[in-house]
Amino acid sequence: MGELSKIVVVVPTYNERENLPVLAGLLSDLNLPGLQMLVVDDNSPDGTGEVADELAKKSPETVAVLHRTEKNGLGRAYIAGISRALDEGADIVIQMDADLSHPASVIPTMVEMLRTTDAGVVIGSRYVEGGSAAAEWGWHRRALSAWANFYVNAILRLHVKDATAGFKAWKADTLRWIDVTTIESNGYSFQVEMNYRTVRRGLRIAETPIRFEERTAGASKMSFKVQLESALMPWRLLFRRS
């Protein structure tokens, strides 16, 4: 991958009309050659899709929109976006939330790590040295996050500090090797299944520190159903392997 690699930031959205223009500006300010944002909107009732269309109209070379007709899970939205990015020749695909919790300023570091090392994916990690979670998090949320990472690693032996992280930069070849279109998870456990397939393929996962921020607008989409799937998925992966 050279300096002119095509880099696609896949951003799933549902009711993010306030945050999306801010994120688009942060990505534009990076001045990173080849960087594009692909918004995958799940028919947001607040008009996020229309906001995305306006951004694409103003900057057609750096912003694209994929409209989906239903909201059927974060994993499905990511697969749709990643598949389109790969079909259109992306060399690097970045997973990033629209809620401004992931620092856009770290993207150049993640891209450089992919270009200069043998890592197949780079995780923006809260739990390596120099990383941190949002200061607004209470002790119970910090404990839940730490427990989730311990739980996943204890079952699947991923040896990843932030196994549940959603901010990632992938080499396109890695996504093809793990056959991303066949990922089954439909919620936040999508991240764990992606990591598991990467490790099973013998590919290296690298981590770089980030400060994870609490969202300032909109609402979290973590439902009980998503939490239940996240708890069960490591066991499903392990038993399927067996």
UniProtKB/TrEMBL annotation:
Transmembrane segments: none annotated. It comes from Kribbella turkmenica. GO terms for cellular component: membrane. The keyword Glycosyltransferase applies. InterPro entries: DPM1-like, Glyco_trans_2-like, Nucleotide-diphossugar_trans. This is Polyprenol monophosphomannose synthase. Residues 9-168 form the Glycosyltransferase 2-like domain. Keywords: Glycosyltransferase, Transferase. PANTHER family: DOLICHOL-PHOSPHATE MANNOSYLTRANSFERASE SUBUNIT 1. GO terms for molecular function: dolichyl-phosphate beta-D-mannosyltransferase activity. It holds the Pfam family Glycos_transf_2. The keyword Glycosyltransferase applies. Belongs to the glycosyltransferase 2 family. One of its GO terms (biological process) is glycolipid biosynthetic process.
